């Protein structure tokens, strides 16, 4: 994978738009976000948490929360999608993606606040995760979800993912997408520039 400079996480923030044009900022989770991120997961409906974690969970255990708030730990990254709500930066969605040792590709998962579902934030966040995975040099992006999670299955289908049987659990379905973009073909401008810069740096070093 292409390595990212993690000394200044703000340089990897992106501004997206909801279906109605509202500004949505996607940025890496930092240690300072721990309490707010935990509150976000607690506020999700029981069904949304079950779908996100593929089982019952009321909140993130502390060791897991620590991993979520430290970018790059174990080759995994967490992002939050935030909006300005009544003058406060509010988490309306989150995603996590990481290098999968077995497949050498990027695995991801995401959730959207129940109150903000249906606003196109999930589609925008998924496209952004696709750009991030491509910039890291991944050839394929994949995720797993419950067969009963019709919302996620519909979102993945609309985003161009193909579906396969899960190799280990019949209750799950796997969706995957071949990336294969050269750095200059990445559809997100910020990650296209980041990937091109990193490739250039490698060429100079060699």
Straight-line distance between termini? 17 Å
What is the CATH superfamily?
Gcn5-related N-acetyltransferase (GNAT)
CATH class: Alpha Beta
Structural class: alpha+beta
Tally the helices: 6
CATH architecture designation: 3-Layer(aba) Sandwich
Strand order of the largest sheet: 1-2-3-4-5-6-8-7
Mean pLDDT: 87
Low-confidence stretches: none
**Extended strand count:** 8
Instruction: Tell me the Rg in angstroms.
Output: 17 Å
Set out the fold topology:
Layout: E1 14-17, E2 23-28, H1 34-43, H2 46-53, H3 62-68, E3 76-85, E4 88-100, E5 105-112, H4 121-135, E6 140-146, H5 150-158, E7 162-165, E8 172-178, H6 189-205
Parallel strand pairs: 5-6
Antiparallel strand pairs: 1-2, 2-3, 3-4, 4-5, 6-8, 7-8
Helix pairs in contact: 4-6
Short description:
The chain has 206 residues and is an alpha+beta fold. The chain has helices at residues 34-43, 46-53, 62-68, 121-135, 150-158, 189-205, and strands spanning 14-17, 23-28, 76-85, 88-100, 105-112, 140-146, 162-165, 172-178.
Polypeptide structure, described:
The chain has 206 residues and is α+β, with helices and mostly antiparallel strands. It has a single domain (9-205), classed as Aminopeptidase (3-Layer(aba) Sandwich). It is built from six helices and eight strands. The chain has an eight-stranded mixed sheet, sandwiched between helices. The longest helix is centred in the last third of the chain and has 17 residues, at 189-205. The model has no long low-confidence stretch (mean pLDDT 87).
């Amino acid at each position: 994978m292409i390595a990212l400079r993690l000394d200044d996480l703000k340089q990897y923030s992106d501004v997206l738009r909801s279906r109605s044009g509202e500004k949505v900022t996607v940025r890496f989770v930092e240690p300072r976000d721990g309490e707010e991120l935990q509150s976000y997961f607690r506020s999700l409906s029981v069904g949304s948490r079950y779908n996100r974690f593929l089982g019952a969970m009321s909140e993130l255990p502390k060791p897991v929360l620590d991993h979520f708030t430290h970018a790059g730990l174990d080759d995994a990254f967490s992002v939050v999608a935030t909006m300005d709500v009544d003058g406060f930066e509010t988490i309306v969605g989150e995603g996590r993606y990481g290098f999968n040792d077995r497949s050498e590709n990027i695995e991801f998962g995401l959730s959207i606040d129940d109150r903000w579902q249906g606003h196109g934030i999930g589609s925008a966040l998924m496209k952004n995760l696709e750009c991030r995975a491509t910039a890291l040099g991944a050839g394929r992006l994949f995720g797993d979800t419950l067969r009963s999670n019709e919302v996620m299955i519909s979102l993945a289908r609309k985003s161009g993912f193909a579906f396969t049987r899960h190799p280990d659990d019949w209750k799950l379905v796997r969706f995957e997408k071949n990336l294969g973009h050269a750095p200059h073909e990445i559809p997100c401008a910020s990650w296209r520039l980041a990937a091109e810069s990193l490739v250039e740096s490698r060429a100079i070093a060699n």
